[in-house]
Amino acid sequence: MARGSFRDQVLRVREDAIVSSVNRLLAEKGFEQMTVDEVAADVGIAKASLYKHFASKEALAAAAMVRVLERTMEVLGQQAARGVSAVERLREVTRWALRVQLAGEMPILPSQNSSLRAELLGHKPYLELLMQVSDRLGEWIVQAQGDGDLDRSLPPELVLYTLFARACDPVPGVLKSSGRHSDDQVVDWVLSTCFSGIATRPS
Amino acid sequence: MARGSFRDQVLRVREDAIVSSVNRLLAEKGFEQMTVDEVAADVGIAKASLYKHFASKEALAAAAMVRVLERTMEVLGQQAARGVSAVERLREVTRWALRVQLAGEMPILPSQNSSLRAELLGHKPYLELLMQVSDRLGEWIVQAQGDGDLDRSLPPELVLYTLFARACDPVPGVLKSSGRHSDDQVVDWVLSTCFSGIATRPS
DNA sequence: GTCTATAAAGCGATAGAC
DNA sequence: GTCTATCGCTTTATAGAC
Fold it and tell me: What pLDDT digit, counting tens, does each position of A162-179 carry?
């Protein structure tokens, strides 16, 4: 791919810094609670300059959502290249998502009545990526059920939503905030409750 | 307890209607997205009248949170009176919470950076009730682990947070919104993923 | 493109008449 | 206690100078 002129590269770097700030602020406070003033202050430029790069607050958030989905697709590609079972791939992708969340870098899913939601539903790059991610995960879920590793009585739809929800669950953050457990310990526990539940496994 | 004068009873009924509106709006949009104008319009009185009953928006929300905790305590009392195992009591309480959530009547947990959080931390009735609920659930969790019904390797703290989080999980709502499943079916599925996980039970 | 300054709208909360 | 009207503040977005 062409990198464009030097000027374009500088622009890219600047916009990438903006998206990083938006991503972190979205993870921290969610879309409605995040203010454009905060984003501008965090990036270190004036608010009016922000609007030269992105047309609206919704466009800012959409860019962050697209980037996290792109990174998710990269992780899916890495897992696909490993010679492990489908359920193991699902577990490792979930582990990655939980780590991102604990690092404070997982932008919050748009709540159902958000103005962001309307914007995203009309944003093709986002929708296409979301569909790609869902399709790939859906394949692995069906495959893992066929392997006998995931519960066959659960609809794949339910499993998919459950995995998405765990990536935004407040539980890891609350557990981490107690300060008594390492990130890896928290991730292992939440992974365990997600895949194996809280009940005892029948022996 | 004294019921007070007729005038006081009318006041109680009025305030109960306010709290019901707040409860539903909190469940629908969360604290920050809920506006006092909406509450007033929903109750059918002027905004200034609202402020004669409750000192602030935070006080409105706190009243709703207290009421849901009171109802939770009632449910805990009912379950305690049944002659069933601790894990079964926990499952039924969770089932009740999921039904309330699907009915659109489970006020959303205060996010960590909310102005509501500060108010609630200084609100003794709320804190006391929350502690009562947590203590009772904590006892049952330890008991269920002792019975061999809940995974002993999980800290009770993790199990407690997990149950609280499931009461506010977006998954049931998303599943219900597809319109293809009954509420009972959705609740059964989510209960299954919560207690038994998504993985196959080893035979 | 970046800035300062400001417009336009929505919000929580209150004043004051009845 | 209820109402109408409004204050004071925050927020998104833009105008216009440089």
Answer: 999 999 999 999 999 999
CB B106 within 8 A of CB B100: yes
| Helical axes B36-43 vs B57-81, angle rounded to 10° | 70
Q: What is the pTM of this model?
A: 0.95
Instruction: Tell me which residues of chain A have a C-beta less than 8 Å from any C-beta of chain B.
Output: 28-30, 32-33, 87, 109, 111-113, 148-155, 157-159, 161-162, 165, 169-171, 173-175, 177-178, 189-190, 192-202
Cα distance between residue A36 and residue A53, in whole Å: 13
Provide long-range contacts, Cβ within 8 A and 24+ apart, for B140-146: B140/B86, B140/B87, B140/B89, B140/B90, B141/B86, B141/B90, B143/B86, B144/B85, B144/B86, B144/B87, B144/B90
CA A56 to the chain's CA centroid: 21
Handedness of CA A174, A175, A177, A178 (dihedral sign): positive
> Model confidence over B55-109: pLDDT tens digits?
999 999 999 999 999 999 999 999 999 999 999 999 999 999 999 999 999 998 7
**How large is the greatest C-alpha to C-alpha distance in chain B, in angstroms?**
64
Tell me how close the Cα of B196 comes to any Cα of chain A, in angstroms: 4
Mutation target to probe the A interface, by most A beta carbons within 10 A, among B158, B190, B194 is: B158
- Determine, for residues B158 and A193 on separate chains, whether the beta-carbon distance falls below 8 Å: yes
Alpha carbon of residue A128 to chain centroid = 15
Instruction: Say if residues B173 and B98 touch (Cβ distance below 8 Å).
Output: no
